């Protein structure tokens, strides 16, 4: 439990705000019934820290609305690109290992829950039967997963061009990113979008919902829509190899700014600031 860990730790306390009360909506069954309790619990955890790291301006706004009293420092997510970019040289090998043919592969990554837009993902696949759609991720909350029964039926009734892999190791996620052609995540809420950063690092063109966190760090390096017909139109456009290359290059250039080596100095300063506040 986060509260217990924060209470027993005697040194500087620094916490990264990857989860907010809003991320539980559409994730856990009945979360709306305990929304007030969850808000109080998260506020208590964040207030016990000497410093809270916020992964985006959108997350900072949520923390302010939550009433977090302690200092909040912007610190976006990062990834070590050395774990992904070398895999691009093995793209043909990886595709063969996954059993893929020459059809473009549309990749989605995330828990199977309404918030991630799984229904929209499958609906687009029905409209584009000539493309292969692959979703990485499972129901991490088990029996507590929101809409578990309907999403289980959705998987069972999905068209033949859709594959649900279930949970896979992180390095295997990187391999899928290196082998795929397009990243598609019609999520309704994200604090930053780490899976999106991983896909961008692999040079995949991005089709997303136009969320505030994406507006902040991706700028104009992604394509977005708000409806299934809109997503379908964008995915059709990305069947063209030159168009995929253009948008994939934009995404890759943006991802470079979030390589872990480039953010190391900022994280070091954050720990020093937390240490100073703890000892003040």
Automatic annotation (TrEMBL):
Gene3D superfamilies registered for this protein in UniProt: Glycogen Phosphorylase B (3.40.50.2000)
Enzyme class: transferase
Ranges that cross the membrane: none
Boundaries of every Glycosyl transferase family domain copy: 93-225
Keywords: Glycosyltransferase, Transferase
InterPro entries linked: Glyco_trans_1, Glycosyltransferase_grp1
Sample GO molecular function, one term: glycosyltransferase activity
Pfam families named among the record's database cross-references: Glycos_transf_1
EC code: 2.4.1.-
Domain of life: Bacteria
Name of this protein: 1,2-diacylglycerol-3-alpha-glucose alpha-1,2-galactosyltransferase
Source organism phylogeny: Bacteria, Bacillati, Actinomycetota, Actinomycetes, Streptosporangiales
